[in-house]
Specification:
There is one protein chain. With 279 residues, this protein is mainly α. It has one domain. The chain is 75% helix and 0% strand. It contains 12 helices and no strands. The chain is elongated and about 70 Å long. It starts with a helix and ends in a 7-residue tail after the last helix.
Length: 279
């Protein structure tokens, strides 16, 4: 039996019909969306890194970042936005593809579905809001000089961020949000929508679950430096593995690692700034 989509492409030239089949399948659109937006984030990060240091110094900039000051609010905002695209969209791939698979099945039956681009827009909207708040927080913290690890207050603050992120890994809220991220099918089954506004709201809700799961770990970037590409990749991998269903043992193990790193930060800060310590 020929479905509606195939019948609609029967009178098109072969090339146009082929494109039509691709764009009629939500899963293809979802995959292309994830790849394109993630690539955009990493390209933007690369451009900003090169723009700050030039090609010759780019590799040396990977483990440090320009300080956030009041004069660099647009730059800091652009950095956080690029990080959201680069780090969070890959970890959202299972959720977006789950929606796309359900929508793909509905489309094959001739039912009305909304593009997964709308879902991704709602998800991204929430994380862009988070990036705006993080930008303001970084500028304020830089202004009061607690992001400078060359002073005792900065080292203690960095250690406190690591410890707080580690403790949050053991919290009930973290695991409740993580369950929603790991298994989105029941959420979509119970809240399915067929209007653009409804699907956008689904993306917003999934974005809120994701923020609830990952906000503390994302704030570790304040301690290690925004644009620190090594930490971006590492934290991005950890968050993606969590959402792929690694189990509570992995989440708790990462919490223990973060707490240990925070304690090391604080102890090193006390040692470096202890009276009589050589400068």
């Amino acid at each position: 039996m020929t479905d509606r989509a195939d019948h609609g492409f029967a009178y098109l030239p072969p090339a146009a019909a082929g494109l039509g089949h691709i764009f009629a399948r939500p899963k293809w659109i979802a995959a292309a969306c994830i790849v394109a937006l993630t690539a955009l984030g990493w390209v933007a990060l690369g451009i900003m890194t090169l723009g700050e240091s030039g090609l010759a110094d780019a590799l040396s900039q990977l483990c440090r970042a320009p300080a956030g000051t009041q004069a660099s609010v647009p730059l800091v905002g652009a950095m956080w936005t690029a990080m959201v695209l680069a780090m969070m969209l890959p970890s959202a791939a299972p959720m977006i593809l789950t929606y796309a698979e359900i929508a793909d099945t509905a489309a094959r039956k001739g039912e009305h579905v909304v593009s997964p681009l709308v879902l991704a827009a709602g998800y991204t909207f929430i994380w862009l809001g988070f990036s705006s708040i993080a930008t303001l927080a970084q500028v304020l913290l830089a202004w009061v000089a607690v992001l400078d690890t060359d002073v005792a207050a900065g080292v203690l603050f960095s250690g406190a961020i690591f410890i707080a992120a580690g403790v949050y890994q053991f919290s009930a809220l973290k695991h409740a949000c993580l369950r929603q991220c790991q298994n989105p099918f029941p959420f979509f089954f119970a809240n399915w929508a067929t209007s653009p506004r409804g699907v956008f709201r689904l993306g917003v809700k999934q974005g809120m679950f994701c923020v609830g799961c990952c906000w503390a770990m994302m704030l570790v970037m304040l301690a290690v430096g925004v644009m620190n590409v090594i930490w971006m990749v590492g934290l991005g991998i950890v968050m993606a593995v969590e959402k792929l269903g690694a189990g509570r043992w992995f989440t708790r193990a990462m919490g223990a690692v973060l707490i240990a790193a925070g304690a090391a930060f604080i102890l090193s800060g006390f040692a470096a700034h202890w009276p009589g310590h050589p400068i």
